[in-house]
């Protein structure tokens, strides 16, 4: 406990809160009312970022702009009449080929930045990626799109009385409109690695919404080029979730395929679970993963038994392999034999898996829809990876978690003779 008067090494990131104290006969000026506004605004921002957090609340999806909607000639068509590297003989002089069509649309929505400002996009907007990208960053074909809180003065009004410090009675803007600014960059934005986003100051106020890969400035952006998993959902913390497994949930494997998957006879095999962020390696302890085999049959004759297994060693070439990992492999170590009709139940106690901030992994296997990752194994079935439909947020692919944290990740597969 800190003794009274002991200086702290870190201070809470909030300005002094002073409110106006009215009294009879007080003389008030514009500065006093501005400071009173700022007091209430700072209180709202403090509650927002301290109690609720920041991120995208709703909407703000990044969508492609179809070619048939891009019918406006570019403003800079006279600057470049050909593509870089194209000659006139190749058709580059045609206005149709010289028109830049790499555009995306941001849908209406609401977000809160890390300082507690509400960012409202009412009608959506269309972004020309080439124009929005800083000139010194145009040597890349991967860009990130985001929005940032902004303000602008509006409604100019002529003052009734001259300012004592002003020469003339010029017009002053009477209102401040809260708006937003679109940001596009070719440099990968930094990740907010703070464990506590409430007390410490944030360094980057841009809310990044999507990453666009392989952009061709002269062709419309395709939907498969837009990756919106870079956006931060609204909340105080960004939970670590399970993003992939190397088996198909609820699928039926042959006995040989199940042995290969479990690593029964192959030291390179095993069940792989992948996470969205680093997980502490020392939390991978015996009992966290459990394999239970329910033998085929029905009624009281069916029996169950537990399959022995262990975590494989992390890759010694990986950075910080002793402390953190992004995935683990769990391999069967006993020689029990699976039979026709068996069901293998896989349980991962996510509440005991801790991330960098020592918070539990959000492991609820919602709908059994965590995607399948490719590990090189030759197993039957559809290992297509992402699910065809999207989670309720509209941003895919599916992951584990409900936002509550912890819980148990459950999955299973069946075994047949053929």
Overview of the structural elements:
The protein has helices at residues 30-52, 95-98, 129-132, 255-262; strands spanning 55-59, 62-64, 103-106, 109-112, 118-121, 125-128, 143-158, 171-185, 207-212, 226-227, 242-245, 252-254, 271-280, 289-294, 304-307, 309-311, 324-332, 343-349, 408-416. It is built from four helices and 19 strands. It is elongated. Helix content is 9%, strand content 28%. The model is unreliable at 1-9, 71-94 and 377-387 (pLDDT under 50). It has 418 residues and is mostly beta strands. The protein has a five-stranded mixed β-sheet. A four-stranded antiparallel β-sheet has the order 8-7-9-10, with no helix packed on it. It folds into two domains: 31-66 and 99-157 and 173-227; 242-376 and 394-416, no CATH class.
Question: How are the SSEs ordered, and which strands pair?
Answer:
Layout: H1 30-52, E1 55-59, E2 62-64, H2 95-98, E3 103-106, E4 109-112, E5 118-121, E6 125-128, H3 129-132, E7 143-158, E8 171-185, E9 207-212, E10 226-227, E11 242-245, E12 252-254, H4 255-262, E13 271-280, E14 289-294, E15 304-307, E16 309-311, E17 324-332, E18 343-349, E19 408-416
Parallel strand pairs: 12-19
Antiparallel strand pairs: 1-4, 2-3, 3-6, 4-5, 7-8, 7-9, 9-10, 11-13, 13-17, 14-15, 14-18, 16-17, 18-19
**Number of alpha- plus pi-helical segments:** 4
What is the number of domains?
Answer: 2
User: What is the tally of beta strands?
Assistant: 19
The sequence of SSEs as H and E is: HEEHEEEEHEEEEEEHEEEEEEE
Helix content: under 10%
Radius of gyration: 29 Å
Provide the low-confidence segments as ranges.
1-9, 71-94, 377-387
Mean pLDDT: 82
N-end to C-end Cα span? 66 Å
Spatial strand arrangement across the major sheet: 12-19-18-14-15
Largest sheet: 5 strands, mixed
> By helix and strand content, what is the structural category?
mainly beta
Globular, elongated, flat, extended or rod-shaped: what is the shape? elongated
Share in β-strands: 25-35%
